[in-house]
What does this fold into?
Amino acid sequence: MKRLAVYCGSASPADPVYIETAQAVGRALAERGIGLVYGGGRLGLMGAVADACIHAGGEVIGVIPEALCSKEVRNDLCTELHIVPGMHERKKMFTDLSDGFITIPGGVGTMDELWEAISWAQLGYHEKPVGVLNVAGFYDHLVAFNQHMIDVGFVREAHKNIMIVDDTLDGLITRMAAYEPHQTIFRMKADDL
Ligand code: AMP
It folds into this structure.
């Protein structure tokens, strides 16, 4: 994995564990020589992951829509900063530029990005690993809901392991590197759907 997209919140929650996690992820990517692809802003966890990666000598590629340049305060320290027309172009570029996706804590925008990565993996628009870093139990309910979708039958057996969850970054990256793509919906027979 040469580059990973990191999805995370643009807010800064009061509990320091979240910003510290973002900083640790940014440093860890730089130390492993893995480039960071992210939303290109300076706010919240997004700014923290990028700054930590830049300060540790890592490659940071930001992708930000024109309309958010001032709101999310674009980060001109990025190695590369792409200003794109809108969210669709931004998310397509995250997918094209990265070899996998890590979601750390965040809000609604982060969830949109995570579920898109999972949904596109199911369909077959990409075959890249999708990891969730479950720090401080932040994603316990999301993991439980994902299991509920599997149990009820809305997530197919073939796709139940697409979401890779770990509570340590080392564990997550190791498991993402070993990820073997699952059968995609595009390759399934109509009778199997
Ligand atoms: P949030 O997790 O809501 O703080 O958002 C994190 C990132 O997702 C930010 O870069 C937002 O620009 C982006 N974002 C916010 N809302 C959406 C949305 N509805 N769809 C996709 N991305 C979003």
In short: The chain has one domain: 3-181.
